[in-house]
Amino acid sequence: MVYLGSMPGGFTGVVTGAGSLLASTITSISLGASGSAALTVADGATISANGGASAINLATNVGGSAVLNIGGAVGQAAVAPGAVLASAVNGGAGTAVLNFNHNAAAYGFAPAITGSTSVNHVGSGTTTLTGASTYSGATQITGGTLRAGAANAFSAASAHTIGASGTLDVGAFNQTLSTLNNAGTVALAGGTLTMTGAYVGNGGTLQLGGGRLVLDGAGASASGNTLVRITHFDALGAETTGDGIEVITATGGATTTAQTTKDAFRLANGVVGGGAYQYRLHAADANGAGENWYLRSEGYRDEVALYAVVPEQFRALDTAMLANRQQRMGESRTTVDADGRERQAWGRVFSVDRDIAQQGTVSPTSNGRLSGFQTGTDLWTNASWRAGLYLGQLEGDMAVRGQQSGAANYSSGRNDLRSQYLGGYATWQRDSLSLDAVLQFGRHRYTATPAEGESSAGKGDSLMASLEAAQGFALSPRWQIEPSMQVAYQHLSLDDTGLSGATVQQDTDGSWIVRAGVRVKGLFNAGPGALRPYAGLNLYKRSNSTDVTRFAGGVGGTDISSRTGGNSGELSLGTSWQLGPRTSLYGEVSQLWELGGDARTDSGISGGVGVRVLW
């Protein structure tokens, strides 16, 4: 046997560096048997008791004191750990301490920890215990993670305390503890943590990834306050029945405050989502009896309405950017210079109010304002044609409401929208007859912020094609009437999005829009200073279709249907003002009224102003 610190006077030693070895080749190692000793194993060094076949004994006799440091000593900086090859680290009749103060992300400790040993985990690293521990000293986890790599790796005879920066990770292995004071995190990825004594929440977190906390016996109790966080739970994703999903169990007379103050546990954010549903934590069963705690579904989660309305919201952005030729570029010139070299550059800023109400599973509604800019230029012209490109961006913040927990028009949260556009146009014009074709690509980003829960983000893209025809007819020397017709097709594709407890998949159909309009327009003071006021009426018809938003997760998936298609009417007032031979200003205000359909769209006042320059 190798003795270190067996006599009064003490021993302090450090085994450090890769390749360094302290070994007993035939028997065990004794540290601080009667005197005091501290041994540090760090930076890849090894201490070996008979190649792992024998034990390391700490403080064997009364009055002995032994400290075994893995990494740095307590109070020093955490460093890389060394290896311990032993069948057990055994605490004797004296004071035996095992300290883990290292910074390794994954450090395995195989020896069983037995006897009177106390364990401190203070470093930032993660230590995985795989031996069957039975030690009776206290366990203090003030930093890093102490993880179970086998069943009963944590000692049922030890009083465990977790500090604010510490984590006790049960993993997928069943463990039993006598007492636990939790100011940090207890993580259960699938295993069961059974308490036979007091569990005291000191502002800590119980992280359930499929595991369960069990309090067993009349001496077991849960008190204080603990935040319950669900990280992964295969049972979520469907409506619950009866008591719900049991996550904290009390048996054999154990108590959890479920029949008194009901405050030992509370759910993070108050609600957790799984699939299309939301769940809350309830004390006692459905009849109010017992000490167990359950998750019960309470209708659709907030994100259901938020995501169900996203396709229609982006369609609104697409059509606001496309608009019609008059809204985009102002009053067009009826002639081009003889050699076709005269081009126009234009730009506008605009703000569109939208209120959308859809029929469907949750009957989502959204309202808000979309604001942005659009700028373009001719790239090629001749006597009858203009062709060019434009860029644009729109942003919007839409409040969303929908059916939830049996309540209609429930405030679900907000969608923050941003879209960027690239478009190409070709316009043919002869006298008062014009044809305008547009192809527009959109790139979309959005953030969904539920009333309860965490924000999530998604993206997608769209393609829109439009053909518009207009013909002006003279009413008098100053006034014209101009009927117009516009047909547009929209295709929208949204990427799958991940959020807590679910994957969201959007299935959107293409849609057609037909606009029939008429404008009465005037011309005053021809030439520089000319004013061209107008009033317009537009009727819109959108094809009927169904958007399907699928929430997949846990035990299954749920399809949420939202209808599209409807009719709207629009009144507008606008003008174009010729500032000089090459520059003009234009603007319009309008309002939209819904005229029926599965998706009803109306608005408050919308408007925009722009400038056009010939070059």
Automatic annotation (TrEMBL):
- All copies of the Autotransporter domain together span 338-615
Q: What superkingdom heads the lineage? A: Bacteria
Pfam families, per database record: AC_1 (PF18883), Autotransporter (PF03797), PATR (PF12951)
Statement: the UniProt record of this protein carries the keyword Glycosyltransferase: no
Presence of the UniProt keyword Manganese in the record: no
Tell me which UniProt keywords the record has, alphabetically.
Signal
Q: Which SMART domains match?
A: Autotransporter
What positions belong to coiled-coil segments?
none
Please name the NCBIfam families in this protein's record.
autotrns_rpt
Q: Sorted alphabetically, which PANTHER family does this protein's record hold?
A: C-TERMINAL REGION OF AIDA-LIKE PROTEIN (PTHR35037)
- Give the protein's recorded name: Outer membrane autotransporter barrel domain-containing protein
